[in-house]
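Allow me, if you will, to draw on your knowledge of protein folds for a short while. I have a record of one protein: its chain in single-letter code and its fold written as discrete structure tokens. Kindly check, if you would, that the fold set down in the tokens agrees with what the sequence suggests. Thank you for your consideration; the sequence and its tokens are set out here:
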Amino acid sequence: MAANAALAADAASAANAASAANSIVPTASPRYVLPMRRSTANLMLLACAAIWGTAFVAQSVAMKTLDPFWFSGLRFLIAAVALAPFAAAERRRAPQPFPRRHVGTVVAICLVMFAASALQQVAMVSATATNAGFLTSLYVLFTPIVGWLLYRDRPRPIVWVGAAIGLSGTWLLGGGLSGFTRGDGMIVLTAVGWAALIVLIGRVVQAAGRPVGLAFVQSLFTGLACVAIAIPTAPIALDAVRDAVWPLLYGGLLSGGLAYTLQALAQRHTRASDAAIVFAAEAPFAAIGGALLLGERLTAAGAIGCILIFGAILLVQLWPDRRGSVIET
């Protein structure tokens, strides 16, 4: 991915980074970004997967009392409020204004985020937490394809092997096509959106920085857009909000605020295709959360699927990378 030198005074450092173009991925200004190992970045992404996987339980519980658009709108507005002071502090510390040439990509991120989040929440009315986690993991396959289509980014060969293993695991975890519902089909469509989001976020934060600001903007836009749809279409009662307060807080503060910030931070230091493999861990976390908290059954085949998914993650993470394991700064 293309590097972006933030200041003229950093020209020498930028030249050194360009000469090391076969290290992982270039980042923004050397003065603003601390080096991070790919393994550390991927551990942060694994934490995101754990939060998002268990968030399927919160989303499923909330659908008993709240309209999908109200839940999505409120959770993302909570996330935006929580992120606002950190985004403001990040802006004050930034060495330069946000590059205008990336504004269009940020707009695309906001639109994709809104569409995928809203569609996923509507799907959770009928899809189980386990199946939602399994089907969402299809972005393991979609992400390298989207990256290649949009930017001609060529993933490492081992990523395709990991994707095949991960998809095999998600197939076992979801029980094949048996019991496939309309909600399941909608979740598959959201997987394409999440794949595009992974690619677009990686492109912006590696070139322009501002990961917290990006998480704030996409959360604010998604929250406002969902509420704008919910107000005229779905009356809301305070009792319904009160009954869903814990799912809202989990979805807003952890799944929205914390996890999306960790994603933006970590994706400055790893490839989008590698990130998609790590995010596949959402499926087993969703299955475990569904089994423990909702009584959804995890079969023997599902357990094998969990093992395969984690195996795929370890394969991509530990496979020797000839292009280096630390961002050059």
